[in-house]
Amino acid sequence: MNEDFTSTTESVDKLIQELNKLPGIGPKSAQRLAYYLLRASDEQTKLLAETILSVKQKTKLCSVCFNVTESEPCLICRSDQRDRSKICIVEQPQDVLALEHTKVYKGLYHVLHGAISPTEGVGADDIRIKELLGRLKDSQVGEVILATNTNLEGEQTALYLNKLISPLGIRVTRLAHGLPFGTELEYADDVTLTRAIEGRQEF
Ligand SMILES: [Zn+2]
To answer: How far is the centre of ligand 1, averaged over its atoms, from the C-alpha of 77 (Å)?
Structure first.
């Protein structure tokens, strides 16, 4: 009978498998994390498990901007400190965090939850474009800032949105200076992002 000792127990294997599904976590990192959790105190692992469950239970998407929120609408959409004449369009909720961190932008947001990518089968109907157009129709928005990523999908999405929004008589701008092609917004540093949003240009 062939005995195989290359795997551990079923439950440890399962944990490694699940961790391996997380973005940026390869098999080796998954293994390291699994063994770290095995050694951690009951209290620590319980807190981690409960935190993961509670974030899923407590958060939802804002029905206006589709950012992650615990209140409806979200704090930014509800704030009277924000400039309601501007909507900045981003791909992911993390991008809102990155832009807020610069403290330069005071307008509203719209989170698309993805970008148009024919190669991955993501079309315009698969991201929150319809909802954006609905927002633009009923509001006093004078400027839309296209802050999608500067990679191929982000550029395609920006082009598509510009074609839809320009005819509505709304100024369309795009983040420009400082962001090199291929940059994902959430990884850009504050200075680069600040320059990008201040230097935005007519699209
Ligand atoms: Zn919102």
So the answer is: 4
